[in-house]
Specification:
This protein is 41% helix and 19% strand. By secondary structure, it is an alpha/beta fold.
Protein backbone atom coordinates (compact mmCIF):
# COMPACT_ATOMS: atom_id res chain seq x y z
CA UNK A 1 0.00 0.00 0.00
CA UNK A 2 2.86 2.30 0.82
CA UNK A 3 4.50 1.60 -2.57
CA UNK A 4 1.21 2.28 -4.35
CA UNK A 5 0.79 5.65 -2.60
CA UNK A 6 4.37 6.59 -3.40
CA UNK A 7 3.94 5.77 -7.06
CA UNK A 8 0.72 7.79 -7.11
CA UNK A 9 2.43 10.82 -5.62
CA UNK A 10 5.30 10.51 -8.06
CA UNK A 11 2.92 10.44 -11.02
CA UNK A 12 1.12 13.49 -9.68
CA UNK A 13 4.11 15.72 -8.79
CA UNK A 14 6.98 14.62 -11.02
CA UNK A 15 5.77 16.52 -14.13
CA UNK A 16 5.36 19.70 -12.08
CA UNK A 17 8.79 19.28 -10.55
CA UNK A 18 10.38 18.75 -13.95
CA UNK A 19 8.61 21.83 -15.31
CA UNK A 20 9.86 23.85 -12.36
CA UNK A 21 13.39 22.61 -12.99
CA UNK A 22 13.11 23.65 -16.61
CA UNK A 23 11.77 27.06 -15.65
CA UNK A 24 14.64 27.55 -13.23
CA UNK A 25 17.17 26.65 -15.92
CA UNK A 26 15.53 29.03 -18.39
CA UNK A 27 15.52 31.82 -15.81
CA UNK A 28 19.20 31.28 -15.08
CA UNK A 29 19.98 31.31 -18.79
CA UNK A 30 17.98 34.52 -19.31
CA UNK A 31 19.83 36.19 -16.47
CA UNK A 32 23.19 35.34 -18.09
CA UNK A 33 23.52 38.02 -20.78
CA UNK A 34 25.45 37.31 -23.95
CA UNK A 35 29.05 38.48 -23.95
CA UNK A 36 31.72 37.96 -26.64
CA UNK A 37 34.26 35.22 -26.23
CA UNK A 38 36.66 36.64 -28.82
CA UNK A 39 37.53 40.07 -30.30
CA UNK A 40 34.70 42.22 -31.70
CA UNK A 41 35.08 44.45 -34.76
CA UNK A 42 33.33 47.83 -34.79
CA UNK A 43 33.29 49.14 -38.37
CA UNK A 44 33.34 52.91 -38.87
CA UNK A 45 32.55 53.48 -42.58
CA UNK A 46 34.35 56.82 -42.70
CA UNK A 47 37.95 57.97 -42.51
CA UNK A 48 39.60 58.63 -39.11
CA UNK A 49 39.40 62.06 -37.54
CA UNK A 50 35.68 62.88 -37.65
CA UNK A 51 32.97 62.78 -35.02
CA UNK A 52 31.84 59.27 -35.94
CA UNK A 53 35.34 57.89 -35.48
CA UNK A 54 36.01 59.74 -32.22
CA UNK A 55 32.73 58.66 -30.66
CA UNK A 56 33.15 55.04 -31.77
CA UNK A 57 36.65 54.82 -30.30
CA UNK A 58 35.57 56.20 -26.94
CA UNK A 59 32.82 53.59 -26.61
CA UNK A 60 34.92 50.74 -28.00
CA UNK A 61 37.65 51.38 -25.46
CA UNK A 62 35.26 50.97 -22.53
CA UNK A 63 33.47 47.98 -24.06
CA UNK A 64 36.85 46.24 -24.28
CA UNK A 65 37.17 46.61 -20.51
CA UNK A 66 33.63 45.47 -19.73
CA UNK A 67 33.73 42.48 -22.06
CA UNK A 68 37.38 41.60 -21.34
CA UNK A 69 37.77 41.21 -25.09
CA UNK A 70 39.32 43.63 -27.61
CA UNK A 71 36.83 45.80 -29.50
CA UNK A 72 38.71 46.78 -32.64
CA UNK A 73 37.66 49.91 -34.54
CA UNK A 74 38.04 49.37 -38.28
CA UNK A 75 37.86 52.49 -40.48
CA UNK A 76 36.56 51.48 -43.89
CA UNK A 77 35.70 54.69 -45.74
CA UNK A 78 34.51 55.23 -49.29
CA UNK A 79 31.31 55.49 -51.34
CA UNK A 80 29.62 57.75 -48.77
CA UNK A 81 29.85 55.04 -46.11
CA UNK A 82 28.54 52.23 -48.29
CA UNK A 83 31.73 50.13 -48.34
CA UNK A 84 31.94 49.80 -44.57
CA UNK A 85 28.19 49.36 -44.24
CA UNK A 86 28.23 46.50 -46.75
CA UNK A 87 31.04 44.85 -44.80
CA UNK A 88 28.71 44.54 -41.79
CA UNK A 89 25.64 43.59 -43.85
CA UNK A 90 27.57 40.62 -45.21
CA UNK A 91 28.97 39.56 -41.82
CA UNK A 92 27.66 36.72 -39.68
CA UNK A 93 24.80 37.82 -37.36
CA UNK A 94 26.59 36.69 -34.22
CA UNK A 95 27.44 39.97 -32.45
CA UNK A 96 31.09 39.97 -33.45
CA UNK A 97 30.88 42.49 -36.31
CA UNK A 98 29.10 45.76 -35.60
CA UNK A 99 28.54 49.00 -37.50
CA UNK A 100 28.83 52.56 -36.20
CA UNK A 101 26.77 54.85 -38.43
CA UNK A 102 25.07 58.23 -38.75
CA UNK A 103 21.82 59.38 -40.46
CA UNK A 104 23.46 59.32 -43.91
CA UNK A 105 22.79 55.58 -43.75
CA UNK A 106 19.11 56.41 -44.32
CA UNK A 107 19.89 58.16 -47.62
CA UNK A 108 21.82 55.32 -49.26
CA UNK A 109 18.65 53.81 -50.74
CA UNK A 110 18.29 56.90 -52.95
CA UNK A 111 21.58 56.28 -54.72
CA UNK A 112 21.06 54.88 -58.21
CA UNK A 113 23.95 52.48 -57.71
CA UNK A 114 21.95 50.62 -55.05
CA UNK A 115 18.87 50.22 -57.24
CA UNK A 116 16.48 51.12 -54.41
CA UNK A 117 18.01 48.59 -51.99
CA UNK A 118 17.69 49.90 -48.45
CA UNK A 119 20.73 48.94 -46.32
CA UNK A 120 18.75 49.68 -43.14
CA UNK A 121 16.49 46.69 -43.84
CA UNK A 122 19.60 44.48 -43.86
CA UNK A 123 20.75 45.64 -40.45
CA UNK A 124 19.54 45.26 -36.88
CA UNK A 125 19.39 48.54 -34.90
CA UNK A 126 21.16 48.02 -31.57
CA UNK A 127 21.46 51.37 -29.80
CA UNK A 128 21.87 55.07 -30.29
CA UNK A 129 25.05 56.19 -28.55
CA UNK A 130 25.11 59.97 -28.77
CA UNK A 131 23.66 62.96 -30.58
CA UNK A 132 25.37 66.05 -31.87
CA UNK A 133 24.05 69.05 -33.78
CA UNK A 134 25.39 69.62 -37.26
CA UNK A 135 26.87 72.99 -38.07
CA UNK A 136 27.66 75.45 -40.81
CA UNK A 137 31.42 76.01 -40.63
CA UNK A 138 33.20 78.66 -42.71
CA UNK A 139 36.78 79.55 -43.45
CA UNK A 140 38.35 82.11 -41.12
CA UNK A 141 40.19 83.67 -44.06
CA UNK A 142 37.01 85.66 -44.73
CA UNK A 143 36.07 88.37 -42.22
CA UNK A 144 32.39 87.46 -41.79
CA UNK A 145 31.10 86.45 -38.40
CA UNK A 146 27.37 86.14 -39.05
CA UNK A 147 25.21 84.05 -41.33
CA UNK A 148 23.63 87.05 -43.14
CA UNK A 149 27.10 88.37 -44.00
CA UNK A 150 28.12 85.03 -45.49
CA UNK A 151 24.91 84.83 -47.53
CA UNK A 152 25.39 88.36 -48.88
CA UNK A 153 28.97 87.51 -49.85
CA UNK A 154 27.95 84.34 -51.72
CA UNK A 155 25.28 86.21 -53.69
CA UNK A 156 27.95 88.35 -55.33
CA UNK A 157 31.02 86.09 -55.45
CA UNK A 158 31.74 82.42 -56.25
CA UNK A 159 31.50 80.21 -53.16
CA UNK A 160 31.73 76.49 -52.49
CA UNK A 161 30.50 74.15 -49.79
CA UNK A 162 32.19 70.97 -48.60
CA UNK A 163 30.29 67.75 -48.01
CA UNK A 164 31.61 64.57 -46.42
CA UNK A 165 28.51 62.39 -46.68
CA UNK A 166 25.00 62.24 -48.13
CA UNK A 167 23.11 64.15 -45.45
CA UNK A 168 25.50 67.10 -45.70
CA UNK A 169 24.98 67.18 -49.47
CA UNK A 170 21.26 67.51 -48.91
CA UNK A 171 21.78 70.28 -46.33
CA UNK A 172 24.07 72.19 -48.70
CA UNK A 173 21.46 71.99 -51.47
CA UNK A 174 18.76 73.15 -49.06
CA UNK A 175 20.87 76.10 -47.95
CA UNK A 176 21.51 77.13 -51.57
CA UNK A 177 17.79 76.89 -52.37
CA UNK A 178 16.67 78.74 -49.24
CA UNK A 179 18.89 81.73 -50.09
CA UNK A 180 18.85 81.55 -53.90
CA UNK A 181 22.58 80.80 -54.11
CA UNK A 182 22.37 79.29 -57.59
CA UNK A 183 26.13 79.25 -58.12
CA UNK A 184 27.07 77.56 -54.85
CA UNK A 185 29.28 74.60 -55.79
CA UNK A 186 29.02 71.52 -53.57
CA UNK A 187 32.37 69.72 -53.30
CA UNK A 188 32.36 66.09 -52.18
CA UNK A 189 35.03 64.77 -49.81
CA UNK A 190 35.83 61.34 -48.38
CA UNK A 191 35.82 62.53 -44.79
CA UNK A 192 35.71 65.47 -42.42
CA UNK A 193 39.46 65.94 -41.92
CA UNK A 194 40.22 67.05 -45.50
CA UNK A 195 37.20 69.36 -45.38
CA UNK A 196 38.55 71.09 -42.29
CA UNK A 197 41.99 71.31 -43.89
CA UNK A 198 40.58 73.14 -46.91
CA UNK A 199 38.57 75.45 -44.67
CA UNK A 200 41.74 76.38 -42.80
CA UNK A 201 43.62 77.08 -46.03
CA UNK A 202 40.75 79.06 -47.56
CA UNK A 203 40.23 76.67 -50.47
CA UNK A 204 36.70 76.07 -49.19
CA UNK A 205 34.19 78.74 -48.26
CA UNK A 206 31.98 76.69 -45.97
CA UNK A 207 30.99 73.18 -45.00
CA UNK A 208 27.95 71.41 -43.59
CA UNK A 209 29.30 68.93 -41.10
CA UNK A 210 29.37 67.77 -37.50
CA UNK A 211 31.09 69.95 -34.93
CA UNK A 212 33.69 67.45 -33.68
CA UNK A 213 36.58 68.06 -36.07
CA UNK A 214 35.89 71.78 -36.41
CA UNK A 215 35.49 72.64 -32.73
CA UNK A 216 39.19 72.78 -31.68
CA UNK A 217 40.04 74.89 -34.73
CA UNK A 218 37.03 77.11 -34.10
CA UNK A 219 38.25 77.76 -30.57
CA UNK A 220 41.74 78.51 -31.98
CA UNK A 221 40.29 80.96 -34.51
CA UNK A 222 41.36 78.95 -37.56
CA UNK A 223 37.81 78.16 -38.75
CA UNK A 224 34.50 79.70 -37.74
CA UNK A 225 31.40 77.78 -36.70
CA UNK A 226 28.66 80.25 -37.65
CA UNK A 227 25.59 78.30 -36.49
CA UNK A 228 24.58 74.94 -35.12
CA UNK A 229 21.42 73.21 -36.35
CA UNK A 230 19.76 71.94 -33.19
CA UNK A 231 16.75 73.31 -31.35
CA UNK A 232 19.02 74.62 -28.59
CA UNK A 233 22.59 75.87 -28.53
CA UNK A 234 25.16 73.10 -28.35
CA UNK A 235 26.43 72.55 -24.82
CA UNK A 236 29.98 72.47 -26.17
CA UNK A 237 29.49 75.80 -28.04
CA UNK A 238 27.19 78.00 -25.96
CA UNK A 239 28.50 81.13 -27.69
CA UNK A 240 27.39 79.93 -31.15
CA UNK A 241 23.78 80.74 -32.12
CA UNK A 242 21.40 78.16 -33.51
CA UNK A 243 20.46 78.50 -37.16
CA UNK A 244 16.99 79.58 -36.07
CA UNK A 245 18.48 82.38 -33.96
CA UNK A 246 20.62 83.42 -36.92
CA UNK A 247 17.60 83.67 -39.22
CA UNK A 248 17.64 80.31 -41.01
CA UNK A 249 14.38 78.60 -40.08
CA UNK A 250 13.53 75.00 -40.83
CA UNK A 251 17.14 73.87 -40.70
CA UNK A 252 16.98 71.37 -37.83
CA UNK A 253 19.65 68.72 -38.25
CA UNK A 254 21.00 66.64 -35.38
CA UNK A 255 23.33 63.73 -36.05
CA UNK A 256 22.90 60.55 -34.06
CA UNK A 257 25.74 58.10 -33.70
CA UNK A 258 24.31 54.61 -33.62
CA UNK A 259 25.34 50.98 -33.48
CA UNK A 260 23.96 48.31 -35.81
CA UNK A 261 24.42 44.56 -36.22
CA UNK A 262 23.79 42.39 -39.29
CA UNK A 263 20.20 41.44 -40.06
CA UNK A 264 19.23 38.23 -38.26
CA UNK A 265 21.19 38.98 -35.10
CA UNK A 266 19.22 37.36 -32.24
CA UNK A 267 17.31 39.91 -30.13
CA UNK A 268 19.03 38.66 -26.98
CA UNK A 269 22.44 39.49 -28.45
CA UNK A 270 21.27 42.93 -29.63
CA UNK A 271 19.87 43.69 -26.17
CA UNK A 272 23.05 42.50 -24.48
CA UNK A 273 25.19 44.76 -26.70
CA UNK A 274 22.86 47.70 -26.05
CA UNK A 275 23.01 47.08 -22.29
CA UNK A 276 26.80 46.84 -22.32
CA UNK A 277 27.06 50.01 -24.40
CA UNK A 278 24.79 51.86 -21.97
CA UNK A 279 27.01 50.65 -19.12
CA UNK A 280 30.08 51.86 -21.03
CA UNK A 281 28.43 55.25 -21.31
CA UNK A 282 28.48 55.65 -17.51
CA UNK A 283 32.27 55.76 -17.53
CA UNK A 284 33.70 59.23 -16.84
CA UNK A 285 36.28 58.89 -19.63
CA UNK A 286 33.58 58.04 -22.17
CA UNK A 287 31.47 61.00 -21.04
CA UNK A 288 34.50 63.26 -21.30
CA UNK A 289 35.34 61.98 -24.78
CA UNK A 290 31.77 62.61 -25.94
CA UNK A 291 31.87 66.14 -24.50
CA UNK A 292 35.17 66.88 -26.24
CA UNK A 293 33.60 65.67 -29.48
CA UNK A 294 30.64 67.98 -28.93
CA UNK A 295 28.29 65.01 -28.54
CA UNK A 296 25.74 64.31 -25.83
CA UNK A 297 24.98 60.79 -24.49
CA UNK A 298 21.84 59.14 -25.86
CA UNK A 299 22.05 55.45 -25.02
CA UNK A 300 18.83 53.63 -25.97
CA UNK A 301 17.25 50.22 -26.26
CA UNK A 302 17.08 48.60 -29.71
CA UNK A 303 13.35 49.44 -29.90
CA UNK A 304 13.85 53.11 -29.00
CA UNK A 305 16.67 53.41 -31.55
CA UNK A 306 14.43 51.89 -34.20
CA UNK A 307 11.84 54.59 -33.46
CA UNK A 308 14.49 57.32 -33.85
CA UNK A 309 15.49 55.85 -37.19
CA UNK A 310 11.90 55.73 -38.42
CA UNK A 311 11.30 59.39 -37.52
CA UNK A 312 14.55 60.55 -39.14
CA UNK A 313 13.84 58.46 -42.22
CA UNK A 314 10.57 60.32 -42.82
CA UNK A 315 12.24 63.72 -42.36
CA UNK A 316 15.14 62.93 -44.68
CA UNK A 317 12.83 61.38 -47.28
CA UNK A 318 11.00 64.71 -47.55
CA UNK A 319 14.31 66.55 -48.02
CA UNK A 320 15.75 64.20 -50.62
CA UNK A 321 12.52 64.44 -52.59
CA UNK A 322 13.23 68.17 -52.97
CA UNK A 323 16.99 67.83 -53.32
CA UNK A 324 17.91 64.55 -55.07
CA UNK A 325 21.31 63.06 -54.35
CA UNK A 326 21.90 62.27 -58.01
CA UNK A 327 20.47 63.88 -61.12
Amino acid sequence: MFDTSLRSLARRWLPALCAACGLGAATTQAQTAWAPQRPVTLVVPYNPGGGTDATARAVASRLSVLWKQPVLVENLGGADGLIGTRRVIEAAPDGYTLLFQVPSLLLMKYQRSLKAIDPVTRLTPVTAVATSPTALVMTATLPFKTLPELIAHCRTRPCNAGSGENSSKVRAQKFAADYQLRDLAVVNYKGTSPIVGDLVSGNLTMAFTGITAAMPLHKAGRVRILVTNGEQRAQALPEVPTSLEAGWPDSYSVTWYGMFAPQGTPPAIARAIADATREAGKDAHVREALAVAGAEPAFTSPAAFETMIREDDARLAALVKRFPLED
